[in-house]
Amino acid sequence: MQGQQDPSEHLYRLNRIYLAIIMRYVSYIEEKESISVAELPTLVTPTNAEIIKKADALKSKFAAYTYENNFFEASMAAFEFVRDKIEYVSLPLQFWLMPEETLQFMAGDIIDKNVLLCSLIISLGNPSAKVLIKIQNELRKVITYYEFNNRIYVLNVEDGISEYDSRNSMIESMHADDDSVAYEFNDKMYIDIM
Predict the structure, then answer these.
(1) What is the Cα–Cα distance from 136 to 21, expressed in whole angstroms?
(2) For 35-192, CATH number?
């Protein structure tokens, strides 16, 4: 059939062109995409309309959502959504997605997924949620955690859920050493942990 092109072949060629453009300007893009630690809280957007819409959809699964009775189950649903429905993608450059963009594309890297999860949990009513990043020997571990009913819940989209008695016991479980760097942030704060 002359004149007709396989749509998947067309998409493949188009993606190769996009990749060539990105790689040509990678240093410029990364320079413009750099973000200071003081700006990290701007990535967490629990009051964004799209985040609120998704949080409301999670709340709608309960007859009459109340924070005290339903938050924990809603947070687990948010975790499962991000873990299972947001596709992990690794771009050839450092590029920050906002949580609403991660929702729009239904894809992002490990930080994008955790920033979305943190935004959703805060939007569900728990302002204690934070993204925690630990870097040790060039390996990066990213989690989201929150406090609820005197417990610490760690939501790790790669390894599952953990529960701790205190924040200190959670930090100790990370097995950091002198070569480790760790920091946490949400929409209101940023702090260095190690």
Answers:
(1) 33
(2) 3.10.620.30
DSSP reduced 3-state for 22: helix
Q: What are phi and psi of 75, to 5 degrees?
A: -65, -35
> Residues 71-89: pLDDT tens digits?
999 999 999 999 999 999 9
DSSP structure class, residue 78: H
Beta-bridge mates of residue 108: 88
Q: What is the pLDDT of residues 85-119, one digit of tens each?
A: 999 998 766 668 999 999 999 999 999 999 999 99
Q: 135 in helix, strand or coil?
A: strand
Tokens 């930080």, residue?
111
Q: Sort strands 87-88 and 107-108 into parallel, antiparallel or unpaired.
A: parallel
pTM equals: 0.86
136: which strand partners? 139
Q: Is 160 exposed, middle or buried (0-12, 13-18, 19+ CB in 10 A)?
A: exposed
Tokens 């809603």, located at residue:
74
Residue given tokens 């949580």 in the structure block:
99
Which of 96, 138, 118, 103 is CA-nearest to residue 185? 118
Which residues, in sequence order, are CB contacts of 99 under 8 Å at separation 6+? 43, 44, 45, 48, 50, 51, 112, 115, 116, 119, 120
Characterize the bridge pairing of strands 151-156 and 87-88.
Answer: unpaired
